[in-house]
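User: Before I run my own analysis I want an independent prediction to cross-check against. Here's the chain; please return only the structure tokens and, at the end, one sentence I can use as a sanity check.
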Amino acid sequence: MTLLHDHDLARAFDDASRSYDRLTALNPGYRTDLFRSARRLGLPDGGRGLRVLDLGCGTGASTRALLRAAPYARITAADASAGMLARARAKRWPPTVRFTHRPAEDLTAADGPYDAVFAAYLFRNVTRPGAVLETVRALLVPGGRLLVHEYTLSGSPLHRALWHAVCRGVVLPAGTLAGDRGLYRHLWRSVLDFDTAPVFAERIRGAGFRSVRTLPVAGWQTGIVHTFLARSGPGPAATETP
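Assistant: Structure tokens:
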């Protein structure tokens, strides 16, 4: 199957936006895992005085997780899909949260600076993930924090087989019923075609980040979804996998 890219992928998300929240609700722990990852950013004092970018915010689930973890931060939430953003904007938000229609590939250093960037389920859906990582590093203040929450298989055949089973048994049937089979076939294959967790951690290092750490997600997604923490600017050049 040919994966969707750029404008074709954004249009597919536009079409799927009406049912996206209902389908993600079928995933046990989806919102809990996002909140746990947002807390792993470790923003001090509830984010008071800090600027945070939610890159690839979708319908706002990741934005809500950030707001819970850092209620005093100024959050900018960006996405390439106008349909997903419309769903996000329709929800209730404090004045410290704003949304912008921007593909990750179109960001430049001039859009910053930010103290932290949170990117959930984004990087496997961009055409040039390494280039986007370099842009994110340029957006961050020295020592700024990056957290990526992403479907990245461990490399184990067991976890790959589990992902196949979940997609065939749950994801594709649900996406087909919603009328968005093409998008959910893309999401299935995009995980298989993307970096494994160790390879993605090295990709982050290659983009100039330091202190890269790979953390697992609990439950059935262990070995399928990982959280990656990193810092921009000076710091110990080490990749740790607890």
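Sanity check: Strands lie at 51-55, 74-79, 97-101, 114-120, 140-151, 210-216, 225-231, 239-240.
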